[in-house]
Specification:
This protein is an alpha+beta fold. It has one domain: Aminopeptidase. It contains 7 helices and 7 strands. The longest helix has 16 residues. The protein is globular and about 45 Å long. It holds the Pfam family Acetyltransf_1. This is GNAT family N-acetyltransferase. InterPro entries: Acyl_CoA_acyltransferase, Glycosyl_Hydrolase_84, GNAT_dom.
Length: 204
């Protein structure tokens, strides 16, 4: 049975569901549960600081029983980089020691991401596209126009704050997501061959 989906602002009670979705879409959009021993580690990097520091730019899809998708954004990537370092990643690192170079496990890679933090890109396009976002939907919510709906909710919030544009990164292993973003009107800002694209959307 297809459930009706409600798009609403993030609430603190949604945090565990967002972490779970982050993990269940971690393998190039597919379920990454089998890859990680620690089910929280990816959420600590890609979700936690966003809802902690910029909750007004977080929206979720709710099917009446659970959250099945989300979008998380920040209006100013430079400010967010500084605040997430001071108020999030610096506090997490003692709990996630930096692994040795010989450890190539997905968990070790996630630990390294926590130690890297979330630095703002030093690119000339950042002044035009200062915001950035993360969006993830479980399979039950895909193919129903809900990705666009989440994007439009965030775009509205960013426009109200006077933000001129938003960027995102997408891995080369996820061409379906790349096609989806380009269909919405994102354009290529940067490409690292075989690794990822950075795409931008003009909000003006």
């Amino acid at each position: 049975m297809t459930r009706h989906l409600t798009l609403r602002p993030y609430a603190p009670a949604d945090l565990a569901a967002i972490y779970d979705i982050c993990l269940r879409t971690a393998d190039a959009g597919k379920d990454g549960t089998h890859l990680y021993r620690d089910p929280w580690v990816l959420g600590h990097r890609y979700a936690g600081p966003y809802v902690a520091l910029e909750p007004n730019y977080a929206f979720v899809l709710d099917d009446g029983e659970r959250v099945v998708g989300y979008i998380l954004g920040v209006p100013d990537s430079i400010r967010f980089a500084a605040e997430s370092e001071a108020k999030w990643f610096s506090l997490l690192r003692p709990l996630y020691p930096l692994p040795g170079s010989q450890d190539k496990s997905p968990d070790a890679g996630a630990h390294r991401l926590i130690h890297a933090g979330c630095p703002a890109p030093e690119q000339p396009w950042l002044s035009q596209y200062p915001a950035h976002l993360h969006i993830d939907l479980l399979p039950a919510a895909q193919g129903r126009g809900q990705g666009r709906a989440l994007m439009e909710a965030l775009w509205g919030a960013l426009r109200s704050a006077g933000v001129p544009g938003v960027h995102l990164g997408v891995g080369a292993a996820n061409p379906r997501a790349n096609a989806f973003y380009r269909h919405l009107g994102f354009t290529e800002l940067e490409k690292v061959e075989g690794r990822f694209w950075t795409l931008g959307y003009d909000l003006r």
